[in-house]
Design brief:
Elements lengths: L8 E2 H9 L1 H12 L25 H4 L3 E3 L4 E3 L3 E5 L2 E7 L10 H18 L5 E5 L4 E5 L2 H17 L13 H5 L15
Parallel strand pairs: 1-3, 5-6
Antiparallel strand pairs: 2-3, 4-5, 6-7
Helix pairs in contact: 1-2, 1-4
The structure holds iron/sulfur cluster.
Iron/sulfur cluster binds next to helix 2 and helix 6.
Length: about 190
């Protein structure tokens, strides 16, 4: 059954959920209360009208992408062409980790799904690009299944009325989190 506009999950929300479920929940509550702007882009990122893809599908891809079938929306930073197939790129500022962060993998897979549902042509992979290194993330059946599982989990979690527990053991995530002062699950003492 197609989803309504107000039921949409954004690709960046998927990334936030993977980053920390509790942080995602706080964001979600603020959105509900109208205190959080949902589609802001970090400074320095590619903005509206700047997507650099000029290939065959440019007209259909240079806009906010929406899948009513999967209840997902988002917009790749840019799209490149690989043997006639569109490949979304997620640009991240900073040095690359050993492997792309799981939240970035989830976000680029969401962009792959959006491109597939828009064009009926699946990208073979997506790209996560850090300052000093680029990773290819396969968009294959296991990745698709994992993304479906994640979307279902987020949708189920939205029905809950209390914040989930922290979903990681990584202090750095709490250190950079805007909810650190109000979160009782934070790994950083303030
Ligand atoms: S402070 Fe840590 S546990 Fe709390 S919401 Fe932020 S990232 Fe999650």
């Amino acid at each position: 059954m197609p989803y309504q506009r107000e039921e949409m999950i954004t690709a960046s929300e998927v990334a936030r959920y993977v980053y920390c479920q509790r942080a995602w929940w706080y964001d979600h509550e603020q959105i509900r209360a109208g205190r959080f702007k949902r589609h802001t882009r970090p400074k320095g990122r590619v903005g509206k009208g700047q997507i650099t893809y000029n290939g065959e599908y440019a007209e259909r891809l240079n806009r906010q992408l929406v899948s009513y079938d999967y209840g997902l929306t988002g917009r790749p930073d840019y799209v490149i062409d690989h043997d006639g197939l569109p490949v979304p790129v997620l640009r991240k500022i900073g040095r690359a980790p050993e492997a792309p962060f799981d939240s970035h993998v989830a976000q680029i897979l969401a962009h792959c799904l959006l491109i597939e549902t828009t064009l009926r042509v699946p990208p073979p992979y997506g790209i996560v690009r850090y300052n000093d290194r680029t990773f290819e993330v396969d968009y294959d059946p296991p990745a698709f299944d994992a993304l479906m599982h994640l979307l279902n989990e987020i949708r189920a979690e939205k029905k809950h009325t209390s914040a989930p527990h922290r979903s990681h053991e990584i202090p750095r995530r709490c250190f950079g989190c805007g909810h650190q002062k109000t979160c009782q699950d934070s790994l950083i003492q303030v």
